[in-house]
UniProtKB/TrEMBL annotation:
Gene3D superfamilies: 1.10.1740.10, Winged helix-like DNA-binding domain superfamily/Winged helix DNA-binding domain (1.10.10.10). One of its GO terms (molecular function) is sigma factor activity. It comes from Comamonas piscis. The keyword DNA-binding applies. This is Sigma-70 family RNA polymerase sigma factor. Signal peptide: none annotated. GO terms for biological process: DNA-templated transcription initiation. It comes from the Bacteria. Keywords: DNA-binding, Sigma factor, Transcription, Transcription regulation. Residues 124-174 form the RNA polymerase sigma factor 70 region 4 type domain. Belongs to the sigma-70 factor family. ECF subfamily. Residues 11-75 form the RNA polymerase sigma-70 region domain.
Length: 189
């Protein structure tokens, strides 16, 4: 189990750290959440763990570790300026606006569409990159961490109305950005 854990740690530590940094206020807290997650891996019985399921297992535990920390942090409400003053770019994207390795959505296996998919995801990257921090955090918890609305509201200390407003705002901004930068461009060619 030790060599498997070392391989899994090497493969998934950086992607988990980037996700944790998106949601936690400091690198130290993100590091702690990732370390707690990897420690849980080491505590497993060797026969009870399927390495093929490492991603879902690790990110499931990480989600809980992040949620626990966020519940403590977001008990007090943030001002509007504080809530929208994060830099999502540095966590998810490189200097050219492309997904950081390990964070990008998985590509489909069809090789004929790979180039088109890569181009599409580059546009998605740019669009997500443009979201304000609060809607980006709510959207990523819903779509990347697969949290339920009640859990997001509880964790971030927001109302259901605020949750729906953030999700609506994120979806509308992503839709507009994708239409301007992908779908309208695709029709023009």
């Amino acid at each position: 189990m030790h060599s498997i854990a070392a391989d899994i740690t090497q493969q998934w530590r950086s992607p988990m750290l980037r996700v944790a940094q998106l949601h936690l206020p400091s690198r130290e807290e993100a590091e702690d959440a990732v370390q707690d997650t990897l420690t849980a891996l080491l505590l497993l019985e060797p026969d009870s763990f399927d390495p093929a399921q490492a991603k879902s297992y690790l990110f499931g535990i990480l989600r809980n570790k992040i949620s626990d920390r966020l519940r403590q942090k977001y008990r007090a409400p943030l001002s509007y300026d504080e809530a929208f003053n994060d830099d999502l770019d540095q966590v998810l994207f490189d200097k050219r606006g492309h997904w950081v390795d390990g964070v990008a959505p998985a590509s489909w296996v069809n090789p004929q569409q790979q180039l088109q998919n890569d181009q599409f995801f580059s546009i998605v990257d740019l669009c997500v990159h443009k979201l304000p921090a609060k809607p980006a955090r709510v959207f990523s918890m819903k779509e990347f961490l697969e949290c339920e609305a009640d859990e997001i509201c509880s964790t971030l200390g927001i109302t259901k109305a605020d949750y729906w407003q953030c999700m609506s705002r994120a979806r509308k901004q992503l839709q507009l950005c994708l239409h301007q930068n992908w779908f309208d461009q695709e029709r023009a060619t």
